[in-house]
């Protein structure tokens, strides 16, 4: 199943001419392309599908949706162990790059 999942923009940077963001999906952090919603800023919430932010979302709607996904077990299904492993690997690489 494919879902568009709400997430909070934590950091924004330009990478090779593309606006990218670090986005928190209720504890799972991933890199997301902002090219479809270029006016997003840190602290905004967005609906994300396959790594692309598609639309801004208000915080209350985002939180309710994440809670519902969690209750239904959809976040586990969508962001199961493979995402967690990649997230940990990306975090370690980012930490090493900052040194």
UniProtKB/TrEMBL annotation:
Full protein name: HypC/HybG/HupF family hydrogenase formation chaperone
PROSITE patterns: HUPF_HYPC (PS01097)
Pfam families hit by this protein: HupF_HypC
NCBIfam families: hypC_hupF
Organism this protein belongs to: Streptomyces yunnanensis
Sequence similarity: Belongs to the HupF/HypC family.
Gene3D superfamilies xref list: 2.30.30.140
SUPFAM superfamilies noted in UniProt: HupF/HypC-like
Domain of life: Bacteria
């Amino acid at each position: 199943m494919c879902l568009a999942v709400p997430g909070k923009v934590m950091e924004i940077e330009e990478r090779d001419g593309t606006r990218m963001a670090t986005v928190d999906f209720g504890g799972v952090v991933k890199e997301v392309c902002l090219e479809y919603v270029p006016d997003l800023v840190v602290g905004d919430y967005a609906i994300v599908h396959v790594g692309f932010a598609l639309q801004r979302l208000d915080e209350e709607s985002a939180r309710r949706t994440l809670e519902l996904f969690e209750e239904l077990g959809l976040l586990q299904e969508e962001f199961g162990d493979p995402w967690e492993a990649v997230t940990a690997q990306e975090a370690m690489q980012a930490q090493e790059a900052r040194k």
